[in-house]
Amino acid sequence: MSRAAPRVAVLISGEGSNLQALLDAASAGTLGAEIAVVVSNRAAARGLVRARDAGVAARHLGGKDISREAYDDALASLLAEYSPDLLVLAGFMRIFSASFIARFAGRILNIHPSLLPAYPGLDTHRRALDAGEHWHGATVHFVTVELDAGPAALQYRLRVRAGDTVESLTARVHVGEHLILPRAVEWFVGGRLRLENDSVMLDGRRLSQPVIMEE
Ligand code: GRF
Prior knowledge:
The chain has six helices and eleven strands. The protein is α/β, with parallel strands linked by helices. The strands form two sheets. It has an eight-stranded mixed sheet with strand order 3-2-1-4-5-6-7-11, covered by helices on one side. Strands 8-9-10 form a three-stranded antiparallel sheet.
């Protein structure tokens, strides 16, 4: 008897190019998972259109006038309809309550546009350029209560070039994000990647640093 494919929920707020990379990998059969639902906190997010075009449930859950806890409860109820094995934050611009993170402990991955622990938070490309960094990139990490500080699994690194701008870095980092995010999801749903006592385990071994891909 064949087992059902693992189920992934993707949370977005905007463009959804990382979501698209996941949808493409799922339809190519290389993700090892089904995208069960896409949730956006913004109704106008283009990612919702991408989900619908791929035949995936696309749900808007706005949260402007409610507390963080009330939002997270509503989100948990919505997600429960789809029984996800993994939540992927792909440009989701909200911060979770500690109880939401506890509910999905070890089962939330986020993609962040910097080489964490450098540059948590917003405006990462601008800050890396202003600081004269030689290296920049993106990180897939497990989500824990501290923002952008959970254990890192996979990083894409690129050398900052003379003449790079926020726009050029955004584009170059996106190329890498679209490689590492589907890879991390595939590893997780395939049972290769997991969080154990705040450490990232890959193929049964504790990673002392994230797996690195270079441009
Ligand atoms: C990405 O740069 C990701 O690292 C950050 O938000 C951006 C989302 O881009 N968390 P997109 O919506 O996937 O195009």
